[in-house]
Amino acid sequence: MLSHARRVLSAPTVSVAAKRSTRLPAVDERLVVPEMRFEIIGGKVEYVPPAGESHGSRHSKISALLEAYAAEGYDVAADMLTRTSDKGDLAPDASVFPRARDPRTGGRQLEELAFEVLSPERLTHAAKKAHALSERGVRRVFAVDVEKRRALVWSASQKVWDVLPPDSAIEDRALALPLPIRALVEAAKPDDAVAQALITKKNSVITRALQRANQAGKLEGHLEGHVEGHLEGQLEGKIEALLAVLDARGLEIKKKQEKRIRAERDESTLAGWIRAAASCTSIADLLGK
Q: Domains of the chain, with CATH numbers?
């Protein structure tokens, strides 16, 4: 469907995997040692290499975006391990999960959104992770292809990645507003998207800054109006004084000439006319016409 001139990608309301047996290990039970560069997928230990510049930079920006876009009641994590099965323990690059504790285990709840940053050699690895996360019950798994500047979503039914339209946006209950795909994939810092999210969520710092700017604008306008009004009053006073002198001398002032005098806004010109008004022989002589 279309929303705000963009295609909005809505989430399925119910995850089939979420209805599965609750006999799975808690999501925060560990198979691998935290803070180590290993994951276990389908019982196989896999080494996770450190990120290069493009991968690490995009990873950082996605985390920043999710922090700004996360809805009330949700938290965001980077590289957080999730127990996917008896033989799986892996960490999405970024995830969005409910802040409330799991009422059954007392631990954290399963993430609802997961994001992976892709490079060509990691596409197969990311697919295995996406499948494991979906099987566990993660509602939606996304991937960002750094080199091809595209975003993908995992199809749990087809077990493949589907490319998302670049002008679309992700709409989900875990997000406070639709997250633009372009903000996820473009190399520039997503400052505009973050700012828009903070404004929409009425972030207290942003709100106070906007209020201060609004108040400053009103004060500036008031001061400018006061100064302009004061200067305008001074000019009008000089014009009336000039016309009074000319009238006292009995000099005939034509309507066109009076209009010319009243239209003058240069203080030095008006001062010169006032000095010359005592000796000029005519209005034309005064105005130099």
A: 2-206 (3.90.1570.10), 213-287 (no CATH)
